[in-house]
């Protein structure tokens, strides 16, 4: 550890990682590729990874470090924002053309993630783009 590094004790967060909205988006090739994960409720808390699953795993570590640093600084930890009444995951059933399903399955396999995670990421990304342009 260098003289400029500070050892901050790990703090157990009041709310778990899963309680906070996190957004996983692809990074452009010029930004190094892979995926970035951000937390709208936690300013500056972010991480990345080569795959969606790796970005989420790294996001868990970033979340824990972010909470510990905030507590160390004496700053409050924001409560998770509730979006509507659905704080728990919900099941969505959607009919798809076979060709679209096949493309999604192939892309999920190529990216090393589950079909469910890929579809969730694509929906969140599309919604984010639409909200940004609205």
Automatic annotation (TrEMBL):
Signal peptide: none annotated. Residues 29-83 form the HicB-like antitoxin of toxin-antitoxin system domain. GO terms for biological process: regulation of DNA-templated transcription. The lineage of its organism: unclassified sequences, metagenomes, ecological metagenomes. It comes from mine drainage metagenome. This is HicB-like antitoxin of toxin-antitoxin system domain-containing protein. InterPro entries: HicB-like, Ribbon_hlx_hlx, TA_system_antitoxin, TTHA1013/TTHA0281-like, Uncharacterised_HicB.
């Amino acid at each position: 550890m260098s003289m400029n590094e500070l050892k901050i004790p790990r703090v157990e967060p009041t709310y778990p990682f899963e309680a906070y909205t996190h957004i996983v988006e692809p990074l452009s090739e010029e930004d190094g590729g892979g995926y970035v994960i951000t937390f709208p409720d936690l300013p500056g808390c972010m991480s990345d990874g080569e795959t969606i699953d790796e970005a989420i795993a790294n996001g868990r570590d970033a979340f824990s470090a972010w909470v510990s640093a905030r507590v160390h600084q004496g700053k409050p930890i924001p409560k998770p924002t509730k979006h509507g009444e659905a704080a728990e995951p919900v099941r969505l059933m959607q009919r798809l053309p076979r060709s679209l399903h096949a493309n999604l399955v192939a892309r999920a396999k190529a990216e090393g993630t589950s079909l469910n995670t890929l579809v969730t990421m694509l929906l969140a990304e599309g919604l984010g783009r639409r909200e940004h342009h609205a």
